[in-house]
Amino acid sequence: MSTTSFPTIDLKLPPPFSVMYLESGIAIFTCPSNPEGIVTAFPGSMAIDAAGNWYRKNANVTANGWILVSNAVAAPLRRVTANTTIVGNSLAALTTLHTFTLDTPNRLLTNGDFLHWTFGGLFATNANTKRIQVSFGGQVLVNTGALDLQGAGGNNQWNWIITIVRITSTTVVATITATEGQLVITGAGTVGAGSNGFVAGRNQTVTVSDLSSNAQILLVEAQGTANNDIQQTVTTVEIAQQ
To answer: DSSP per residue over the chain, as a string?
Structure first.
């Protein structure tokens, strides 16, 4: 391997490209996306984009002539963060419980990339009204509104599961499952939620800033009547990128 430079080519490479040359002048590049029309290289050179796709330079020392060799195989879910800090609401104000910034290298760069977001906690065993609000990229996905969640008899847990899938560079679809309290099945077979809790599902499309170039904020907020009417105890985020 050689670190020899070729100024007539190197000067044509805008950042953030990285390159390693073989003795023959053939290069191996890393680049953000398809190098066609962008990267100048000797024939036989290889380029790997941020999604793991491979390209081969077919002919001519120009920026054209790159051929896609193989598409990357979608990666399995990988851990991005796990937060077990216990945070409660502050009096009657809408309070940030857990927040996480989804940024490089964890952006949703390719259509079909998705993240799996789970979080949950406890609400106090009182009759105070309580609400939870969840946002992605500054867009509110769910606002429960003020609910009389009493948390009696051990039914004071709440848990949410959200999957967010990139549809376009500025559009995601979110599927949401939320439970507050627990399901109760009576002797008559009636199904309900204890202590004024609920179980709900939701599916919605949301417009956000360009996912390829902007960080996105995952945010859980809560509001009660007194301190710690709602507490968040855990957040996990996993991501799958193509």
So the answer is: -B----HHHHTT--TT-EEEE-TTS-EEEEESS--TTT----TT-EEEETT--EEEE-SSSSS--EEEEEPPPPPPPEEEEEE---EE--TTS-EEEEEEEE-TTSS--STT-EEEEEEEEEE-SS--EEEEEEEETTEEEEE---EE---GGG--EEEEEEEEEEEETTEEEEEEEEEES-EEE-TT--EEEGGG-EEEEEEEEEE-S-TTTS-EEEEEEEE-SSTTSEEEEEEEEEEE--
The pTM for the full model equals: 0.66
Q: In this predicted structure, what is the pLDDT of residue 187?
A: 60
Residue 26: pLDDT over 60:
yes
pLDDT digits (tens, 9 = 90+) for 175-220: 999 887 765 555 665 555 555 667 788 899 999 999 999 999 999 9
pLDDT at 155: 62
- The tokens for 104 are 């490089």
The domains located in the chain, with CATH, are: 7-70 (no CATH), 78-240 (2.60.120)
